[in-house]
Amino acid sequence: MARRLGTILVDLGYLDEDGLWRVLEEQKKGADLIGRVAVGLGIVTEDQVLKALSEQLGMKIVRLAELTVPQEAIDQVNETMAQAFKVVPIAVGKKDKSITVAMAEPQNPATLDSLRSFLGVEVKGVIAPEKEVLAAIERTYAGKQESIRTSSSRSRRTRGSRST
């Protein structure tokens, strides 16, 4: 069984036992994840939670602002999937055509399984800060939805003008 995130935060020296109990008590009041609660209380930083998640899940941490995402990766994951799962495609495997996605919520195991099912290829995950993932989704897919609407409204106008 994987070690608990709170235990990892303590083991890494980011949190002491008293801090962990405080976070757990606060977490009982709501349904938020322990890392978010700890950051919200100002006890740990988001980077510390990411490092603990990386250790817990055996996943690498990436900074999306430092990456250039190939169009081939973007073409594999549509905007709806990216928003629903809070992921950004960042690479496509040369040999196996697997897709690597940066995840805002890597602790949700259903995300990778669902993406594998939808895409029909192996999907690998890496961790990225949620703010970076959301900003990257907005940047990556900006204008694409608008261009789809624009082209579909043009085709409706074209069809409409033919029938008159």
Could you explain how this protein is built, in words?
With 164 residues, the chain is mainly α. It folds into 2 domains: 53 residues; 96 residues, 2-Layer Sandwich (GMP Synthetase, Chain A, domain 3). Helices cover 57% and strands 10% of the residues. The protein is built from 9 helices and 3 strands; from the N terminus they run H-H-H-H-H-H-E-E-H-E-H-H. It has a 3-stranded mixed beta sheet. Strand 1 and strand 2 form a beta hairpin. It is elongated and about 50 Å long.
Compose a concise summary of this entry.
Helices cover 57% and strands 10% of the residues.
Which helices and strands, and how do they pair?
Layout: H1 5-11, H2 17-29, H3 34-40, H4 46-57, H5 71-76, H6 79-85, E1 87-92, E2 99-103, H7 109-119, E3 123-127, H8 130-141, H9 144-162
Parallel strand pairs: 2-3
Antiparallel strand pairs: 1-2
Order of helices and strands: HHHHHHEEHEHH
CATH topology (fold) name of the largest domain: GMP Synthetase, Chain A, domain 3
What is the SS-derived class? mainly alpha
- The side-by-side strand order for the widest beta sheet comes to 1-2-3
What is the 3D form? elongated
Number of helices: 9
Q: What is the helix content?
A: 55-70%
The percent range for strand residues is 5-15%
In the CATH hierarchy, the architecture of the largest domain is 2-Layer Sandwich
**Average pLDDT figure:** 85
Number of DSSP-assigned strands: 3
Largest sheet entry: 3 strands, mixed
